[in-house]
Amino acid sequence: LAVAQALPGRWRILVSAIDGCSDSVNTIPYIARLVELVPSLEMRIVLPDAGKPIMESHRTPDGRAATPTVVILDEAGNDVGCWVERPAFLQTRAIAARAAGLIEQFAREKQSMYDGDAGESTVREVVAVLQAAAAGKPRCDAGPAPLPPDAPAR
Questions:
Q1: Is 67 exposed, middle or buried (0-12, 13-18, 19+ CB in 10 A)?
Q2: DSSP assignment of 23-58, as one string?
Q3: Are 104 and 53 in contact (CB under 8 A)?
Q4: Beta-carbon neighbour count of residue 92 at 10 Å?
Q5: Which of 17, 31, 117, 122 is 20 to 30 A from 72 in CA distance terms?
Q6: b/e string for 107-138 if b means 16 or more Cβ within 10 A?
Q7: How far is CA 24 from the centre of its chain?
Q8: Cα–Cα distance for residue pair 153/116, rounded to 1 Å
Q9: What is the rounded distance in angstroms from the CA atom of residue 74 to the CA atom of residue 53?
């Protein structure tokens, strides 16, 4: 919180999300709380139909347009960073599970991982994207790169 409150300037957070998406439900309330506590932040949430352009231009490591897609905009409305779908620790596990054919098992276990993290990773990662933008070094955190097809699961 202190890091976010110390950021210079004003920042807009544009989110494409939907309440039927478990990743949206488990991340966006924490980002919304951050925005409530940091006067220099504002946030707008749009449904995937309206958010399709940002979802398609900020894809997951395995090439999917996904919710939530969080885009950071500077005061002039320039896209200066993003955070896509889920925290890195979950994205790593999802990519490994998908590569190993275990995505259904991952899906069953995902909620307990979200519960244990309690939004900490989401907020930390979004604040890191904001910090990078404030430093003039835009970045997009979409998670780790996907595994090659012949690589063992991590």
A1: buried
A2: HHHHHHHHHHHHHHH-TTEEEEEE-HHHHHHHHHHS
A3: no
A4: 16
A5: 117
A6: eeebeebbeebebebbbebbbebbbbbbeeee
A7: 9
A8: 23
A9: 18
Q: With contact defined as beta carbons under 8 Å apart, do 85 and 65 qualify? A: no
Segment 95-121 mean pLDDT: 96
pLDDT (tens digit, 9 = 90+) per residue, 50-82?
A: 999 999 999 999 899 999 999 999 999 999 999
What's at 134, amino acid-wise? A
Q: Are 31 and 67 in contact (CB under 8 A)?
A: no
- Band of the pLDDT at 144, cuts 50, 70, 90? low
Residues above pLDDT 70, as percent of the chain = 92
62 and 91 Cβ atoms separated by less than 8 Å: no
Which residues, 6 or more positions from 147, have their beta carbon under 8 angstroms from its beta carbon?
95, 96, 99, 153, 154
